[in-house]
């Protein structure tokens, strides 16, 4: 590996360590001061136009942040994974909920009342710093997401989403699909038919095994190299 590659790997490792430390600081805050509840798949955590009364942390599971379009369609904007905070923006800006949050899988959610949250951040500067950096990362991710929708082909966008959701073991990556094809199409900016056709083409080419709720990528490195 050349010098630039070594530097790139070192920077990525340092970034991953920093992100893990930030998640740990937020996890400790919510585990110490938050209330825990188990939320079933498809249950709402909050709905649009509700008062913003709590901030949430995904201790386990997967949550989608969505909104309804004018035609009544549900558009998934963000996914919140284990170790991530959500619902803070409206609390910190004093607004009602702009979107709704719903569990994609059975999840365990920790919550802190809005009235307590700001005071806790003042008392725990490590958590305040972690939340600030997490929000900055999300802003950069949103910018990259917009650039991706404009410049990258659908197959690339779908592949990146699958790799994000999947669990790698050896060469294979197993993706248990928590989203319908229609929801995936909203996330990556295409039609439902295009999602189905792309998965079907990869299956016919022998790249993946594709069933109703699962995709197995046979050779993850080769799959990424095709993108």
From TrEMBL:
Keyword Heme: no
InterPro entries reported in the protein's UniProt record: cNMP-bd_dom, cNMP-bd_dom_sf, Env_Response_Regulators, HTH_CRP, RmlC-like_jellyroll, WH_DNA-bd_sf
Residue ranges constituting the HTH crp-type domain according to the UniProt record: 152-221
This protein's record includes keyword DNA damage: no
Single GO MF descriptor: DNA binding
One GO CC term, this protein: cytosol
Keywords: Activator, DNA-binding, Transcription, Transcription regulation
PANTHER family, alphabetized: CRP FAMILY TRANSCRIPTIONAL REGULATORY PROTEIN (PTHR24567), HTH-TYPE TRANSCRIPTIONAL REGULATOR ARCR (PTHR24567:SF74)
Protein name: Crp/Fnr family transcriptional regulator
Organism name: Cohnella rhizosphaerae
């Amino acid at each position: 590996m050349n010098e630039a590659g070594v530097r790139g790997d070192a920077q990525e490792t340092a970034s991953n360590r920093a992100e893990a430390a930030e998640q740990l600081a937020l996890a400790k805050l919510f585990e110490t001061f938050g209330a825990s509840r188990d939320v079933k798949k498809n249950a709402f955590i909050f709905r649009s136009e509700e008062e913003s009364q709590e901030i949430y942390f995904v201790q386990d599971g997967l949550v989608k942040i969505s909104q309804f379009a004018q035609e009544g369609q549900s558009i998934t904007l963000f996914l919140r994974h284990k170790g991530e905070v959500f619902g803070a923006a409206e609390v910190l800006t004093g607004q009602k909920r702009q979107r709704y949050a719903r569990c994609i899988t059975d999840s365990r959610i920790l919550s802190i009342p809005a009235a307590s949250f700001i005071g806790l951040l003042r008392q725990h500067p490590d958590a305040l710093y972690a939340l600030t950096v997490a929000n900055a990362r999300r802003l950069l991710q949103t910018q990259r997401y917009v650039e991706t929708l404009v410049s990258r082909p659908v197959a690339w966008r779908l592949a990146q989403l699958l790799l994000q959701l999947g669990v790698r073991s050896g060469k294979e990556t197993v993706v248990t699909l928590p989203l319908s094809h229609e929801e995936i199409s909203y996330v990556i900016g295409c039609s439902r038919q295009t999602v189905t056709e792309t998965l079907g083409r990869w299956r016919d080419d022998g790249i993946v095994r594709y069933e109703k709720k699962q995709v197995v990528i046979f050779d993850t490195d080769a799959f990424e190299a095709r993108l």
